[in-house]
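Board notes, transcribed. Complex of a protein with S-adenosyl-L-homocysteine.
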Amino acid sequence: MNYKKVYLKPGKEESLKRFHPWIFSGAIHHIEGEPEEGEVVSVYTSKKEFVAVGHFQVGSIAVRVLSFHDEAIDYAFWRRKLQTAYDLRRAIGIAGRADNNTYRLVHGEGDNLPGLVVDIYANTAVMQAHSVGMHVSRMAIADALSDVMGDVVRNVYYKSETTLPYKAELEAENGFIKGGSTDNVAMEYGLKFHVDWLKGQKTGFFVDQRENRALLERYAKGRNVLNMFCYTGGFSFYAMRGGANLVHSVDSSAKAIDLTNENVALNFPDDSRHEAFAEDAFKYLDRMGDQYDLIILDPPAFAKHKDALRNALQGYRKLNAKAFEKIRPGGILFTFSCSQVVTKDNFRTAVFTAAAMSGRSVRILHQLTQPADHPVNIYHPEGEYLKGLVLYVE
Ligand code: SAH
């Protein structure tokens, strides 16, 4: 293909031969021509052998690979990729169900589309670009999306204001790039919720906890539930459907608490079992009594970068220690970490240390991760980010 050419330093094609989709700027020997940010480039070894095509960007990751074949990145390419992504969601039985119209259609590297996230909420797709290249291609991607999804997706909301590198000065405004709708109620396994794609975090809902919420439902019967870091209340309405005795949802954001109350009312109007509190997690855990025997801890990413790892692990340790201290005998703790830089082992060690501090007998019932619509590219293990443990505390 006739793209500008990036030449690697000798030997720097190793990771690409193993299909890793990132090329760091330090691996580049020289570039022919002056590609703009977001432009498609071809990548060659020092011996002038073709290795990949991808999106060029200024920064530590200089190229995000779109294909290891010498092919055009055109409308037909986007269409093929989105079709593959949709086929996968149907094959695993998460798309096309009567009781569920919420799922992740595109999970970046996990769908061989680094820099792109697409979540489906009923008839609206919320699209998020994390790279300049995906931003530049947004209209072609939105067209291909309509083509592939037909009537399933009538609106495409573009939400990249906070996810694009600010140095690129793209000034991407959030808004509909196709259709437009104020009907923002979607369904997850038969439960309804409002998606705040306008102002909400991420694409408006944490789609990645679906299977873990479904598991929680099975343990909720007769229990007193604390849903800490509830955001829009996902775990809370599953606990209620599971027959919980009471459910308390806590989040430091007043807006999140409003959303939680709205969502609970949508599914369980006038149900007095639920109460929500806008309060800091640590303060609440300190002042609360010992009434809870099912606790969910799903904090925001404590570490966004490697240097913050130590502090993050300390955060997980402290947080979990408080839960171990207060949870009733025979209680169940669902505890999570969504920090990508915190490994499964790091997280386990932090939680184990917290358990040991409490001196209680603790057993692992389940080890949880992200659901199948957030697949991990086997050549890009960094894509595994969600970790969870379900613990039985005597
Ligand atoms: N469990 C949620 C997602 C949690 S996201 C779900 O299933 O959808 C993390 C949440 O933690 C955010 O809503 C954020 O507002 C909240 N948060 C961040 N810091 C907090 C703190 N110190 N105390 C309480 N909540 C906090």
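The first helix runs from residue 14 to 17. The chain is about 30% helix and 25% strand.
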